[in-house]
Amino acid sequence: MTEDDQKQRMSQLEARLTAAKKVQEPAPRTDKDFSQGELAWRMVIELTAGIVIGFGIGYGLDYLLGTIPIFLVLFTLLGFAGGIKTMMRSAHEVQDKKMAAEQGKAAEKDERD
């Protein structure tokens, strides 16, 4: 066997391996959107995180300053408001993505017609 024959056989083998790897690759996911369950859990976690962070800051300030739980109540309410604001931002983000996808589909359908 000459070197040219070996190089040719190696290139053929590499081509067959590449083709076999392409067959084995999983298909890319077409649904890149969040499911409703994932969105609901995301919103619950955002709200809970806001409340817990506010509670922690308020409790820490009350402990350090030796006050009645005024900061605890105040920062828990602020955490709740921040959690609600974050939830609303997430809802608008998902809604905007859905609207953009629907507009893209409508424009694509118009181009085909």
TrEMBL record:
InterPro entries: Atp1_alphaprobac, ATPase_put. The chain crosses the membrane at residues 39-57, 63-84. Residues 1-32, 94-113 are annotated as: Disordered. Residues 22-32 have a biased composition (Basic and acidic residues). The keyword Lipid biosynthesis does not apply. The keyword Thylakoid does not apply. It comes from the Bacteria. Signal peptide: none annotated. Pfam families: ATPase_gene1. Keywords: Hydrogen ion transport, Ion transport, Membrane, Transmembrane, Transmembrane helix, Transport. Belongs to the bacterial AtpI family. A possible function for this protein is to guide the assembly of the membrane sector of the ATPase enzyme complex. This is ATP synthase protein I.
